[in-house]
Amino acid sequence: MMNDIVEIHHAMLPLPDGTQLAYRAWMPKDASSEPVPAILEFLPYRKNDGTIVRDEITMPETAAHGYACIRVDLRGCGESDGHMSDEYTAQELQDGQDVLAWIATQPWCDGNVGMVGISWGGFNSLQIAALNPPELKAIITQCSTDDRYRDDVHYMGGCLLNDNLDWASFFWAYAQGRAPDKALVGENWKDQWLERLERMPLLAKPWLTEQLRNEYWQHASVCEDYSAIKVPVYAMSGWADNYRDTVFSLLKNLSVPCRGLVGPWAHKYPNIAYPNPKMDYVKESVRWWDRWLKGIENGLEDEPALSYYLQDSVRAQTDYAHRPGQWISEPCWPSPNTCSQRYFLNEKQLSATANPAAPLLSVSSPQTTGLNGGRLCVGIRQDMEQPADQRADDAGSLTFDTLPLTEDLALAGQVVATLSLRSDKPTAQVAVRVCDVHPDGSSTRISVGVLNLNHSDNHATFTQLDPDTWYSVEVALKHVAYKVPQGHRLRISISTAYWPLIWPSADHATLTLNPAKSMIEVPYRETWETEFEPPVYDKPVSYDGESLRAYDSQRMVHHDYKTGLVCLETRDDFGRQHFNSCQTEIDMRMKQFQTIHPDDPLSAESELFYELDMGRDGWWTGLTAHYHMHCDYDYFYITARWQALEGEQVIFEKEFKETIERTGV
């Protein structure tokens, strides 16, 4: 039976140190007399005007099933008091525990609390679960990580991600830098905003300073001790999301009840995600909460531990409205239903047997190799984020193909490449892609992995490469489920660059590959009958408000034939919207320029500009930001400039100029 609900649009909850955090809540009307379990989402992304669309779609419907849904802004964000110093700090995690304790004692809560979240909220759900607050009974973590160094927007395979700077700038404009709402905070809003801005750190600095996997990244990485998590975990992600590996590592390593789900989706909740098909997230999540927060025996434990969407072969597109495929279920992970095929690299061919006499091969990729790789994490920006046709990137790589397949091959799991390499320079990196080559030669990227070869022993130390030494390294690609059809070829592509996904090594190295000692392990499923159909969600994604200007995106490559420089230009206009529930208009625009010379890794340069207008009649605020990063052999150089405006007047301005030594990348 569905409940009538009531909304608390804005209120403050107290922390033990006197700080007040802003929250929004939905719950059954009679919850104060008949308490219900509560579900917390704890984020920096502004409950009043940031996550407003997804909150207003998902939380009222969940509340109608008999839950109190509480959306709380982190300290120093939105209308909450205090200051924010970094991601996932000890203070944030303590605040989260204090919020859980507060919720559990409210008259509308029966004492049982779950945590839910996507991205940041998925991260801290896991992190807080590992601290074992007694009120927390279960979590749903989506598009999250168990290892902050290995699997976030900062580093991948020990390589510096361009998203490190990208995310620092986007987060400042989207959440960190915005003003508290005058209508909710009162006349003190500007003083609170200015004090917050003055104390706000340049987050790109610590993220770039900590280039090795040390205590900074180990903090709040639950992979350090999976056994610390004592509550049931439901992990969700999508094949277009950067964080999909976490679903599999949690299933493999947790000893508590754990369930996994991976759809065709980008970095979004499954009911508002793309590509289609969407899933009825509320229906699926309520079954989880009913079992672990209400104690209803609904057969959840008897169902498969993992369900994923096996994607059919497609021609590469930078956007997909729909990905054809089918749902597959596994009893556990690793699964007894998957096998492994070993391919050896033989004179640019993948074959089942090694050739000890295979000649050595060399590759020194243009630094522009990777321009067709799309964005790291599809779904954070706007359009054209998926990988394009890979033929141009393949041209700058060593490629190894199977013969045309005589039957369909359903990849399911993590492809791992073992490579025997030698570098002629002291620093180098390698990127490995697995692609679906169509009969006409077009190439669709299935998955990718990268490795900083100076981290070949581990990501905690940086060792210069010896040109006379052969190194045997493993490159683990992102998990995947993809069916390569009969008549197509499977391709492995190996390059020494993958711009702009990763920042280049200091040297323009040539790698020599020994094919006789190199191979790849390809996991596959022999059968793929559909065994699971998630609840379908076919409602349009809409919100209570009005679009005053539609969003628009541009993504283009410029080649300056005079200088040789190649620039990837991205322009994202997020449109202008009016939201009725907060009576606020928001208008955000960004442009980004990522420039490099094909022959010079030290020419790499990234530049971002943001503009934001937000407010209503009688109260208008704005932000502008400019971030720039370049490097030489020994240092990175970051400059940033922030401006805050009230109406047309600049009321705050701050500049940063940072020089950071290259100690790990």
TrEMBL record:
Domain of life, per lineage: Bacteria
Record keywords: Hydrolase
Cross-referenced InterPro entries: AB_hydrolase_fold, CocE/Ser_esterase, Galactose-bd-like_sf, Xaa-Pro-like_dom, Xaa-Pro_dipept_C, Xaa-Pro_dipeptidyl-ppase/CocE
E.C. designation(s): 3.1.1.84
Xaa-Pro dipeptidyl-peptidase C-terminal domain span: 286-521
Database matches in Pfam families: Peptidase_S15, PepX_C
Top enzyme category: hydrolase
Gene3D superfamilies: alpha-amino acid ester hydrolase ( Helical cap domain), alpha/beta hydrolase, Galactose-binding domain-like
Molecular function via GO: dipeptidyl-peptidase activity
UniProt protein name: Cocaine esterase
Native organism: Vibrio palustris
Gene field: cocE
SUPFAM superfamilies: alpha/beta-Hydrolases, Galactose-binding domain-like
